[in-house]
Amino acid sequence: MSSHWDKIEYAEELLTSFLLNCVSTSKMEWIEIERIRGIVEVTFEKSSIMFLDTVLRELIEDVFQKIGAPLIIKLTENLEQPSKSGELLLQVSNSLEQLVEFRKSCIELLLLIGSVRSKKDTALLENSFETWFSCKLTSIVTPQFEEFLRTFAKASFQQVDWSCPESDAEKLSMEGFFSVCTYLESLGLSVLVLQVLYKVILNELQSLLKIHEGNFTIRLLPSLSNWLDSNVINWLRWILGMRTEASVSGSQLSNVSPLPCHQSPLLLERMSPTDKAHVMKDEEAKTSENWYLEKEKLYTQCYLRIDHLIAQELARLRISEMFDIVVDYPDSLPTLEDLKDCLQKTDQKRELSKAFKLQLNKRLLHAGATTSDILATYVHAIHSLRIVDPDGNILSDISKPVRKYLQNRSDTIRCIIYGLTNETEDETFQELISASQNMAEEDEEAIEAKWMPLPADAPYDEYVSGMDDAFGILLSIYGSKESFLNEYRTALADRILKSLDFQLDKEMRNVELLKLRFGESSLHSCDIMLRDLRESRRLLTSAKEQISSWKDESFEIVVCSKIVWPKLTDESFVPPVEIRCALDSFQKHFEEMKKPRKLLWDLSCGAMKLSLTTEKGQTISVRVSPLQGCVLILFGRHGQWNLQQLCEELSVSADFLKRKILPLVNQGLLQELNGEIYEFVESYEGNFEKEELIIEEETMAEEERSEQTGSSNIWIYERYIYGILESFQALPLERIHKLLKVFVINPRYDKTEYELNGLLTNLVQQQKLKCIDGLFMVNK
Amino acid sequence: MVVVKLEKAKVTCHWTWNTKDETCGICQMPFDGCCPDCKIPGDDCPIVWGPCEHSFHLHCILKWLNSRQHCPLCRREWHFN
């Protein structure tokens, strides 16, 4: 028994010295080999493979402690206190080379021992060694080591031409770095190398992208792909040892290519000379081919990964700038194309929609942005996202908050219509035209044929199917086309009645276009409004021809078909005699021509342009509402008016008139003296000889609007009041109030007695009722 | 004294039929509008009066007169005034 242990101990000693010898001289004495084989065969013939493994492990561990460990320690120390970088590279390279040698020798030894036993045992021993060795190596991988690699990788990347470095020192350092990489690869640390390489590429990429931050007018992706194909790939090939023949100068490649196991000299030794030559040639070709394939695979992997990296980084940058890109549309088209291509490769759509939503919230959807800005940006976003994501998921996702926000803005529809009819913003209109043409072309069957299932990532709520038409999307903000058309009608009426140079042709074109989209019948009332205008112009021409007294060229009169027009405000007044004459003669003309129709004036609508010449010869041109115009005309008669006199002259209430005069006072045309006396200001300060002073009546405030909607209820009360007064003949105010309270249930009568008084007075003014001694009765 | 010259004025008015009633007794549409068969109110869809001073859209009463010859509201004999 003891002799067996002695044998083992002897064998261990022998193997250790053999290994030590191998590592230090990196050569094997072939005579030794035969002797060791013999001893191993004898000693370990009967022992189990586990036992052999343990023995060998201990043995290698011993040798490693003597040779490998100091190398690693030295390497780490060198890295921690770097001297000159050139020396450091050399030192690291040397240490690594020795480690590679050590590994090689160990494997040789294992093969040698394995050759005595079965093939299976050899593989087992080898595996066990590899695991152990890679554990030992992990201590190399310190942050300093990575940093070291990165520095050189970066330096080599920035080298323009790797095949011929500029100076010898550079050449040396690059060759050194290359061999470091190759050693690391041989040590099984290629993952580490790749990691560092990716980091360097990422850094380079990011600095490249930084240059193009905020520049959306050129496409980046093609130039980046180009960069990948030329710079990055060549560099990678160089580092991964795939240098093409032309660029390889030295014989380094064959020197450092890892020695495959089956090429071990030992195995070859045992073959017959002829066999040997044959196998050598065969094996060599096979190995280099295998090795090449392996590399090719790795290289393809790297290529794909970097390609993905580029797409990802570019997309990330553009996503962070999405808002600016959208604002810049259509100048940012190249960038949008880029982003589209990137998103096809990476999985960042969700990221985009999330980030864009945040940006919108932060930069657009707040009180500081005007509705028209929001709408314009939204339209741009629609266009942009249609390019980036044709499926429309992102669009429908970001639409939700925008639409919700726009719904809370009261002037959204007005802005849409303004954008539609504004001359400068023809783009939207073009959109409308093209969209409506599309709609006309596609009948339902065609749409059905085009049906596609929703994409998998579609949010199943609120998926807007008609997302391919910006105008339609804008319209759908408000849900119904009715509200849009109503608003359009109001806007059109406003323009017809208030603008002094109304462009009939343009508006007719607009209406025709809208008809294409909404159908003939929806725009019927707009049609009639424009027809009214044409008819009025005809009437006016005939009036001028037929009425001899009609000399005044300045009037344009619009006769409305009341039923299709939006409710015209009925704040009537009696104009000064010079205007009244003209109006009366037109009225007479109309009533003759169109018997038995009669004409009623709605003087509150419309506009007047006046030129005021002061005593000093200063001329002021103003545009005002008819009532204000009449007031100014009155001031042409007397320089000073008492409010009461003015009211009598124009037959309006004092409060009402005061409110209307206020803008004139504010603009400095009139001034108010004590006791409600107004005076024309002779020395007007502004210079409006050239420009026109436009005095708007106070725009209809919100409360007034709600009052107007309230007036629809008043119409119902009116019916009840007539009914009550017809059955009771005459009643005082409080009786009517009480009766209304009892009878009017839907909608509930909620007026105060005071408000009812206003309503009744109004009806008396309109001569529908009369009031005698506090009793109201129907005027028959 | 300031001299005021009216350069341009846009004045609005609306027409209405000179009738007592507001709606046509036959079609129940307002006279300011038109009968159900017409599209454009005004000259194209006039109003007519009978001797009883009841008024209807021309098109409405013509249809009515196809079957009988009296006013649909008061049954007096109809002819156009």
From TrEMBL, chain A:
One of its GO terms (molecular function) is ubiquitin protein ligase binding. One of its GO terms (biological process) is protein K11-linked ubiquitination. GO terms for cellular component: anaphase-promoting complex. InterPro entries: ANAPC2, ANAPC2_C, Cullin-like_AB, Cullin_homology, Cullin_homology_sf, TPR_ANAPC2, WH-like_DNA-bd_sf, WH_DNA-bd_sf. Keywords: Cell cycle, Cell division, Mitosis, Ubl conjugation pathway. Pfam families: ANAPC2, Cullin_AB, TPR_ANAPC2. The keyword S-adenosyl-L-methionine does not apply. The keyword Cell division applies. Residues 434-665 form the Cullin family profile domain. Belongs to the cullin family. This is Anaphase-promoting complex subunit 2.
Automatic annotation (TrEMBL), chain B:
It comes from Galdieria partita. It holds the Pfam family zf-ANAPC11. GO terms for cellular component: anaphase-promoting complex. PANTHER family: RING BOX. Residues 35-75 form the RING-type domain. The keyword Cell division applies. GO terms for biological process: anaphase-promoting complex-dependent catabolic process; cell division. Keywords: Cell cycle, Cell division, Metal-binding, Mitosis, Ubl conjugation pathway, Zinc, Zinc-finger. InterPro entries: RING-box_E3_Ubiquitin_Ligase, RING-H2_APC11, Znf_RING, Znf_RING/FYVE/PHD. This is Anaphase-promoting complex subunit 11. GO terms for molecular function: cullin family protein binding; ubiquitin protein ligase activity; zinc ion binding.
